[in-house]
Amino acid sequence: MTDPKFVAFSTQKGGAGKTTLTVLAASYLYYVRGLKVLVVDCDFPQYSIEDMRERDKELIECSPVFKKMFSDNMRLTKLAPYPVLSAQPENAMRKVREIIDDCEDEIDIVFFDLPGTVNNPGVVSILNCLDMVIVPVAADKVILESSLAFALKIQEWLTTGRTSVKQMYMLWNLVDAREKTDLYDQYEAVFEEYGLQTMKTKIPDTKKYRREGSKTLNRAVFRSTLVPPDKTLLKGTRLPELADELLGILNQ
């Protein structure tokens, strides 16, 4: 990659997994694939990713197991933790540009964690700069309707010139293996009728995606801003496949 690519997992419905997907994609691509990333937490006022980074830092101090994971990863990869920038949407792009200009190493991907409210001038200004918006969607009526409404709003803005997002994809998240595959095919046919593209990778509903470090439990970690997803937990998560598909789309 030559110029940084700007990407957001975004939707207006809480619980669809956008913050978790942002962290996991950033950590996997940075610590495992070696791409330089910047994560921008614009989800004011909760700043979930900033809070996660602070929890990770606390674990280094109080959990010998997590501290060893962190030290081993630093020794193996020679990588300091990727930067997490917290900024309100209206200030985010200015601060991102400053970081990119001041950074000695080129940044490959900037991930944005956006608030759910799109009718915000700051959010619109960020959307205007994005190379790709990924809308997590689940086979749950509330999440499905909310995510579809969000995607159609962005698509409406695209057709009217209010935003210039380069690409937008729906992403199946929280997929239950017991559900019939034709259910997703039927939903995707509806997406296609609306002119919406869907990523091929489907993310399963697995507790691994929520496994963070623990102050009391000596266990492998999957979701963290300071260490990569544990290799022993990767099987069946479809995270490597998601990373491959994401990079393939961005490099088209």
TrEMBL record:
Residue ranges annotated for the CobQ/CobB/MinD/ParA nucleotide binding domain, each copy included: 8-212
Residue runs in coiled coils: none
A Pfam match: CbiA
Database matches in InterPro entries: CobQ/CobB/MinD/ParA_Nub-bd_dom, DNA_Partitioning_ATPase, P-loop_NTPase
Name of protein: ParA family protein
